[in-house]
Amino acid sequence: MIEPVKKIVFFGNERLSSSPAYARAPIMEALLDAGFEIEALIIKNNETRSRKISRPAILDRAAAKDVNVVRVRTAGELRAAVGNLASKAAVLASFGMLLEGEIIERFPLGIVNVHPSLLPAHRGPTPIESAILSGDRETGVSLMKVVSELDAGDVYAQNRLVIEKDESKLSLTERLGDLAAEMIVENLTLILEQRLQPQPQNHDRATYSQSIKPAPALKFEQHSAEYLCRHMRAFAGCPNNKFDLDGQTVEITSAKPADRPAGAESLVYDRSDGLLYARCRQGYLAIESLRPLSRNDMTAADFVNGFSRQLLNHPGNA
User: Fold this and answer.
1) Are 15 and 51 in contact (CB under 8 A)?
2) Residue 215 placed within a domain
3) Residue 57 and residue 178 in one domain
4) Whether 54 and 99 share a structural domain
5) Do 264 and 191 sit in the same domain of this protein?
6) Chain segment 169-186, per-residue pLDDT in tens
7) Considering the domain boundaries, does residue 304 fall inside one?
8) Rounded distance, CA 126 to CA 113, Å?
9) How many domains does the chain fold into?
10) What global pTM score does this model have?
């Protein structure tokens, strides 16, 4: 009888999205609870500077379970790190570095990538954000065979999740993390024993998510209210989620599309409900709360009273 493979390497930090509040490592924890031995957790050495979370939660989980942590910065350091390992298989979740063929070949039983999208949709670094921004009705998790091309390997398994109306990035990330943990435990032994064969992706239907970078402030007149709401939910807390509001750059933290009679004013403060209405290319955005640069979150009413009092005197403001 063939001895089941239980020793593996884990690549990545499990930050499935850019949500600053996401501080979990369900995939690695599920593997450990299922009896897998993680010979090493390999993580990029610059992870603590890439997003707002100062320390990935997976490092605390690794310390609690006495998992050896190896930090790498370059492909050369990565080659040196895996050269001393005995594991024949690996799991990858949000590693942030493409693996060269030499690294992949180092694991004869393969490397399984846990990717939070329904591949070939939303390949790349921000699949959860891209699903929300695109207005997708569903997303999911794919278990994929790692190849040297970005997220292009054959798929072992996929499970779907419905994206709830107005669901936050944090909520969707947590649900996908839980689904990913269930899937990797259910399928990893089958994959390593070659009892589950992967199926090729349809590369003609591939779409790609993008890295999150600072960007000019969004202008209401250039986008629909529906799109801006999706953007706000997808990129909450990110440097590309800034809006030009009455000459000030702000992050909108809560808003919804609204029906409102078209008027001459592009920005209207309604005293009756305390909301700030921004006229968009299509419809109005009803702003409930926002955060000016270097300030705390505040209501639209507080913003108008403290930062933009001229709005109170605009003609047409209720």
Assistant:
1) yes
2) no
3) yes
4) yes
5) no
6) 999 999 999 999 999 999
7) yes
8) 15
9) 2
10) 0.91
